[in-house]
Amino acid sequence: METITTTLLIIGGGPGGYVAGIRAGQLEIPTIVVEGAQPGGTCLNIGCIPSKALIHAAEEFNKANTYAAQESALGITVENPRIDLARTVAWKDGIVKRLTGGVGSLLKKHGVRLVNGWARIIDGKTVEVQPQDGDGAPLRIRCEHLLLASGSEPVELPFMPFGGDVVSSTEALSPESIPRRLVVVGGGYIGLELGTAYRKLGSQVTVVEAAERILPSYDADLVKPVAASLARLGVELRLGTTVLGFEQGLVRVRDASNVEAQLEADRVLVAVGRKPRTTGWGLESLMLDMEGRAVKVDGQCRTSMRNVWAIGDLAGEPMLAHRAMAQGEMVAEIIAGKFREFVPAAIPAVCYTDPEIVVAGMSPLDCDREGVEFVSAVFPFSANGRAMTIEGTDGFVRVVARKDNHLILGWQAVGAGVSELAAAFSQSLEMGALLEDVGRTIHAHPTLGEAVQEAALRALGHALHI
Ligand code: FAD
Ligand code: NAD
After folding, report:
1. DSSP string spanning 76-97?
2. CA atoms of 427 and 382, how far apart (whole Å)
3. What pLDDT, on the 0 to 100 scale, is given for residue 132?
4. Which helix (H) or strand (E) holds 267?
5. What stretch of H or E contains 120?
6. Which ranges constitute the DSSP H helices of 9-153?
7. For a surface tag, which of 100, 325, 346, 391 has the fewest beta carbons within 10 Å of its beta carbon?
8. Residue 133 Cα, ligand 2 centroid: separation in angstroms?
9. Is the pTM of this model over 0.70?
10. Exposed/middle/buried for 3, CB within 10 Å: 0-12, 13-18, 19+?
């Protein structure tokens, strides 16, 4: 078997692994990335990017249908809108291909070798790779540093395994047809992002959520406009309800009062969370310390074994692409001899529902829990000119700051297009901005960002436009 040596060996070419590879290449660390599927990982191939493409296509189709169904205040008329799903999926695949091709080119540009095959850990410094095409001879790679970035996989319900009409987000992102009736199990990120998209593409959608409300990880005020929009769209919510099984087109459910019911379904999307990918590639043999299902890491993403590192979804929550990328970049710099620690002021999170939700840092509830004295203010989009021009007046921006010195601790927003406010939120937190800093910054008019400035001014007691 051919044996090659390198300084840094990265298992997994997702956002964590490929960013670590690019940065390591820039720092001239001899690096190999091993990827069993396509570069770009879950995020680019079967996650963030294809889901946002499908959500956009569904929204465009829904707009056309809305204009066709009723007189529009904008004076737009559309007749007989139709969608060619095969072309929609091909368009989405084209975006994925451009991006994953780009990852390959970037690694190459920075002198990083990408090996296409499944890695199997032999020990903390040795990995065997079976090339993907099956014809190539196995390869043995020895390294000084081993970076584990194998990501995560969907959680399966044992009594409703994936297959046939029971699908995970992966299949739901490449549909050959739109089911007449879709039951979505799990009212979290994936269930609501894709459930809404399928509703807009024409399915009757029922969301079955075990908790008493949808998006249980977000605060209730932020979720209200999303719940109202789901009701307008005609998405049925079964809250406090668990699934019992799926047979012959019927999903059996039981609600909090122990009442059982059957829901008709042509397809069932199970989206009850994701788990770190820890089995099937020899990871167990390293006997690393674990934290729940994830590999335990310290503030520099070091595992319990010297020179073995873990990042991204494999290293637990929050399972977000930008966290994986930030950790990957940091580990490459540490290996190059720089001093770095993973202590972000905040990891923003966006839920691409309709309307969108974005959070960064602490909410009023977090402050209460931690006994921090705070001031908080909300600025509604109903008082924002830009929001009116894009018919997006539902929602608000909320700021949370320390009561004593006005240091901003957190931001939350819900509304059309608020995902783009994530940058402003994170920057103000990372730079230690005060309410006064944001309140005195000139924000371009008319923009949704003015609601950010106005929320800060309102927390200071002198908002201008409300
Ligand atoms: P992954 O992206 O999972 O990459 C791991 C890679 O390792 C994979 O390509 C896999 O093939 C490879 N691999 C695993 N084991 C081996 C092995 N033994 N040998 C070789 N290769 C191996 N996050 C966001 O921030 N924003 C979003 O909008 C968003 N939307 C999402 C939508 C969906 C439908 C899903 C499923 C996820 C979404 N996420 C989103 C989460 C995001 O995709 C993950 O947090 C992110 O991809 C994690 O990056 P990673 O590098 O840790 O792992
Ligand atoms: P999730 O944790 O967001 O939501 C899972 C939901 O399923 C929860 O509300 C939970 O209460 C519910 N649930 C669990 N078991 C259930 C059961 N048996 N019956 C009914 N409901 C049940 O998980 P997800 O939606 O699968 O997404 C996985 C992860 O992927 C997310 O946590 C996130 O890290 C990532 N993701 C991020 C984005 C984004 O950033 N926009 C989008 C999609 C996915």
Report:
1. ----S----HHHHHHHHHHHHH
2. 25
3. 78
4. strand 267-270
5. strand 113-123
6. 15-26, 41-46, 48-69, 85-109
7. 391
8. 33
9. yes
10. exposed
Closest Cα to atom 4 of ligand 2: 188
pLDDT at 131: 83
So which residues are the catalytic ones? 445
In order along the chain (466 residues), what is the average pLDDT of each group of 10 residues?
96 98 98 97 98 98 96 95 98 98 98 97 97 82 98 98 98 98 98 98 98 95 98 98 97 97 98 98 98 98 98 98 98 98 98 98 98 98 98 98 98 98 98 98 98 98 98
Confidence at residue 126, expressed as pLDDT on a 0 to 100 scale: 98
> In the 8-state DSSP scheme, what is residue 137?
P
Residue at token pair 């959608």: 205
How many other CB atoms are there within 10 angstroms of residue 353's CB atom?
A: 24
| Range list of H helices, 305-421 | 321-335, 364-370, 385-389
**Interatomic CA distance for residues 250 and 265, integer angstroms:** 6
Report the atom number in ligand 2 closest to the C-alpha of 319.
34
Please give the pLDDT value at position 134.
Answer: 66
CB burial string 299-323: b at 16+ within 10 A, e below: eebbbebeebbbbbbbbbeebbbbb
What is the CA(192)–ligand 2 centre distance, in A? 9
The two structure tokens encoding residue 299: 């503030």
Compute the distance between CA of residue 254 and CA of residue 232 in angstroms, rounded to an integer.
Answer: 25
Nearest to 314 by CA among 12, 3, 5: 12
Domains of the chain, each with CATH number or no CATH: 2-46+90-154+275-335 (3.50.50.60), 166-272 (3.50.50.60), 349-459 (3.30.390.30)
Of the candidates 34, 37, 30, 4, the one whose C-alpha atom is nearest the C-alpha of residue 149 is 34
Distance CA 388, CA 385 (A): 5
CA atoms within 13 A on the CB side of 375: 17
pLDDT number for residue 136: 78
From the CB of residue 257, how many other CB atoms can be counted at a distance below 10 Å? 6
> Is the CB–ligand 2 distance for residue 209 below 6 Å?
yes
Decide whether any atom of ligand 2 lies within 6 Å of the 358 Cβ: no
Beta pairing class for 308-310 and 139-148: parallel
pLDDT of res. 113: 97
Whole-number pLDDT of residue 202: 98
